[in-house]
Specification:
By secondary structure, the chain is α/β, with parallel strands linked by helices. The chain contains 5 helices and 4 strands, in the order βααβαβαβα. The chain has a single domain, classed as Aldolase class I (TIM Barrel). It has helices spanning 9-13, 17-30, 48-60, 79-96, 111-124; strands spanning 2-6, 35-39, 65-67, 101-103. It has a 4-stranded parallel beta sheet with strand order 1-2-3-4, with helices on one face. Helix 4 links the parallel strand 3 and strand 4. Helix 4 (79-96) runs parallel beside helix 5. It starts with a strand and ends with a helix.
């Protein structure tokens, strides 16, 4: 079983990182044995620093997976945004020993698209 949650981007973009962190913690506490997937809508986070920060925030709060988007916004998974998340996961694993999953979502429509993302995974492993 998995639980999906989308971060409060309004709170995040206005710098209320603790509010977002506490919301993720609260949802994680209710998940029981279900895995928590935290969705960022990376296309709306505006900067690479924000994507990196959101990735770390989600992982520190207990996400089992971090996900680029719901697939329902204008900008979904992009190679650049996904690479930032994969690098954050790699660095988190190096520091904590905990492996977090990454799910790029939205905009991956062809085998060629999928292969691009697979290369990113292999390059950051």
């Amino acid at each position: 079983d998995e639980i999906d949650m989308v971060i409060d981007r309004g709170a995040f973009l206005s710098g209320r990182f603790m509010k977002v962190y506490e919301e993720i913690l609260a949802v994680k506490a209710e998940c029981g044995t279900a895995r928590l997937k935290v969705i960022f809508e990376t296309g709306e986070l505006s900067t690479y620093d924000n994507i990196r920060r959101a990735s770390w925030l989600g992982m520190l709060a207990g996400a089992d997976f971090i996900k680029t988007s719901t697939g329902k916004v204008a900008t979904n998974a992009t190679p650049a945004n996904t690479l930032l998340m994969l690098e954050a996961v790699r660095d988190f694993r190096a520091q904590t020993g905990v492996q977090i999953g990454v799910k790029p979502a939205g905009g991956i429509r062809t085998t060629k698209d999928a292969v691009k993302f697979l290369v990113l995974v292999n390059e950051t492993a």
